[in-house]
Amino acid sequence: MPITNASPENILRYLHAAGTGTKEAMKSATSPRGILEWFVNFFTCGGVRRSNERCFREVIGKLTTSLLYVNKDAFFDGNKIFLEDVNGCTICLSCGAASENTDPMVIIEVSKNGKTVMDKVDSERFWNVCRMLKLMSKHNIQQPDSLITEDGFLNLAYKDFQGEDLSEIDASDADFRETNLSNVNLVGAILCCANLHAVNLMGSNMTKANLTHADLTCANMSGVNLTAAILFGSDLTDTKLNGAKLDKIALTLAKALTGADLTGSQHTPTPLPDYNDRTLFPHPIF
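Structure tokens predicted for SPI-2 type III secretion system effector PipB:
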């Protein structure tokens, strides 16, 4: 599921309360119910826009530290994450069981003085945000240099993620301008409408990546494995694709190839797509 462009009114209220807001607004924002709403907004929106408000920096820090000791499989298998003493509250994050027709949900419980308030968020969206927090910690990306743009999308521009494992990441609409993504595992990544202008993708594995309407202008994609990737509407103007593996893709569906360097690239005819094969179309394009 994509990290969406959303700006709930509560987020603005929390930002205001943390800065120049009234004592009443601050009290509301940091009450158990206010903290719960902040957590739900945080994971629903992929992170609070410009998330450096004073009263929640500590929360993000504690969550990031906890994530160093809990991986996705362990969390989904029943391990819980506890955050103690958040304005006198205890926060418990746990994964509920999946029902027959729905994916598992993450349960957020905020307790204080024997009373508990609870809500749920989508598990995959939750872990996508957790993944970003771990990435911030690993690469020492500070809160003022937020991973969220003013429009609410992932901001990964001008970073160095060489050799990272970003497989199956959902970074639709993300800003990767001039970022170093060389030798990165991007297998199955969803990069619809992402800004990948002038990125370094040399040697990366982008098998089955979804690059629908992505901006790849001036990108260095030398030696990239793009087998079965989706390039529908993508802009490859002045892109370096020399030595790239382009099997099972339809270059003709790209928006533009003007000036693209295809020297030494491998390209085999594209078979008719099986629209019932979800592995070829990990993200709807309509």
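The longest strand covers residues 105-112.
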